[in-house]
Amino acid sequence: EIVLTQSPGTLSLSPGETATLSCRASQSISSGYLAWYQQKPGQAPRLLIYGASSRATGIPDRFTGSGSGTDFTLTISRLEPADFAVFYCQQYGDSTWTFGQGTKVEIQ
Amino acid sequence: QVQLVQSGSEVKKPGASVKVSCKTSGYAFTSYFMHWVRQAPGQGPEWMGILDPSGGSTDYAQKFLGRVTMTRDTSTSTVYMELSSLRSEDTAVYYCARGGQFRKRPFDDWGQGTLVTVSS
Questions:
Q1: What is the mean pLDDT of residues A77-99?
Q2: Does any CB of chain A come closer than 8 Å to the CB of residue B38?
Q3: Whose C-alpha in A11, A20, A59, B77 is 20 to 30 A from the C-alpha of A5?
Q4: How far apart are CA A34 and CA B106, in angstroms?
Q5: What is the per-residue burial (b if ≥16 Cβ within 10 Å, else e) of B34-57?
Q6: Interface of A with B (CB under 8 A)
């Protein structure tokens, strides 16, 4: 099973700043089968990025996914108040689907 | 639009079973894989298994083998997840999540979640 490790655990930023979130896999993820989700309190996760760098429907271009192999990054530019939440990476390249433990982006 | 509507909260005693439903609409039910994911308080999501609604085949995460059963009713476009031998560690919000038409896809749509509390 592929284990995903996200860092940092918490990111304290102000609106307008840029958030850089990391997701490292215990082994290479084939074909970039890596997704990112945003979750707000009391809500289900929402798909942001799939295939490491493709934005899901309706996701603004302030959200950018990059990376390959074992190292992936989610960059959120010009943070808006609605962006503050917990973000999870997920791999779907092997026969299971696993999530990272999450990075919380909070208002400084 | 795609909708996944789950059944309501449950409180169960240790050793009991729980069955959660997820009624779907807005898309071709048999054309998209369906997953179940749970999330314990303060934890990240945990994948439990996948169901192919067209034929009913399933694959379960190793952790839940022998305790989880996923089924579907094509006449009502509803999927079900039953978890048996409940223990306190199974207290979590359980989600159904729609995958893609191909197996290796992330989860585009999610149900609203069902809180299952296991307590004596």
A1: 95
A2: no
A3: A59
A4: 8
A5: bbbbbbeeeebbbbbbbbbbeeee
A6: 1, 31, 33, 35, 37, 44-47, 50, 56, 88, 90, 92-93, 95-102
Q: Report DSSP state, residue B8.
A: -
Residues of chain B in contact with residue A96, where contact means CB-CB under 8 angstroms, are 47, 61
Q: What are phi and psi of A16, to 5 degrees?
A: 95, -20
Distance of alpha carbon A55 from alpha carbon B61, whole angstroms: 28
Closest Cα in chain A, distance from residue B84 (Å)? 21
Mind listing the pLDDT tens digit for each residue in A44-75?
999 999 999 999 999 999 999 999 999 999 99
Q: Which two tokens stand for residue B68?
A: 């989880």
Q: Is B61 helix (H, G, I), strand (E, B) or coil?
A: coil
Q: Is-contact B95 B113, C-beta < 8 A?
A: yes
Q: Which residue has the tokens 């894989």?
A: B33
